[in-house]
TrEMBL record:
Keyword DNA-binding assigned: yes
Organism of derivation: Nocardia stercoris
Domain (HTH tetR-type): residue spans on this chain: 8-68
UniProt GO molecular function: DNA-binding transcription factor activity; transcription cis-regulatory region binding
Matching SUPFAM superfamilies: Homeodomain-like, Tetracyclin repressor-like, C-terminal domain
DNA-binding region: 31-50
Keywords noted in UniProt: DNA-binding, Transcription, Transcription regulation
Transmembrane portions of the chain: none
Superkingdom per UniProt: Bacteria
Name recorded for this polypeptide: TetR family transcriptional regulator
Lineage start: Bacteria, Bacillati, Actinomycetota, Actinomycetes, Mycobacteriales
Length: 209
């Protein structure tokens, strides 16, 4: 890797290497030495960019979350094609989760990795409570992303939430987590479409014009 890369570019390169490794051997099996070797840098470079493996894993899960967030915003035409009001909000939410779902369906290994990082943090947290921060930051970051997408949809359609957006976003994230995990088990994409319809309907039930 070129020595001319900025620290942020180095971090992104190392995170990408860690993701590729974790997809193959699981989170628990990845070491910072493995990441250094896969990225073609010294171990010292890894520890210069990340204090330890936990810090690297925290940024790894954020990177995976941002991939999904970016997939929702990738098609700008979706965000420009809706009018105002509750029905428009519902349809916009449904279109947004469809964009997210297309990303999920095309990358099952990465979706499995998000669950593995959570269980890794919970299991390791029994002996090292600080490791719980990986899972907590993962979900706090995801909650924030979902809330921002919902707020964007609210502003675009001129509706008002009847519950705090944080409450709605947390429910939406819990729902999506369950849908994706079930799909990883049974691969039933047709049923997922029905579930996403339900999600959009439920979220729209907590808005007013």
């Amino acid at each position: 890797m070129s020595s001319r890369l900025s620290v942020e570019e180095r971090r992104a390169h190392l995170i990408d290497a860690a993701i590729r490794l974790a997809e193959k051997k699981g989170v628990a099996g990845v070491t910072t030495r493995d990441v250094a070797q896969a990225a073609g840098v010294s171990l010292g470079v890894v520890h210069y960019c990340f204090e330890n493996k936990d810090a690297l894993m925290t940024e790894l899960v954020k990177a995976l979350s941002m991939e999904l967030r970016n997939s929702v915003e990738a098609d700008e035409s979706v965000w420009r094609s809706f009018g105002s009001g509750k029905d428009s909000f519902r349809n916009l939410v449904r279109a947004a989760v469809e964009l997210l779902w297309r990303n999920v369906e095309s990358s099952p290994e990465r979706q499995l990795l998000t669950y593995e990082t959570t269980t890794y943090a919970l299991r390791e947290g029994e002996q090292t409570p600080a490791k719980l921060a990986i899972a907590r930051e993962q979900y706090e970051f995801n909650d924030s992303n979902v809330a921002e997408v919902l707020e964007q949809a609210r502003q675009g359609t001129g509706i008002t939430f009847t519950l705090p957006v944080q409450t709605i976003s947390r429910f939406a994230l819990n729902f999506i987590d369950g849908v994706v995990l079930r799909w990883l088990v049974d691969g039933d994409s047709a049923t997922v479409q029905d579930q996403l319809d339900v999600l959009a309907d439920v979220i729209a039930s907590y808005v007013s014009e």
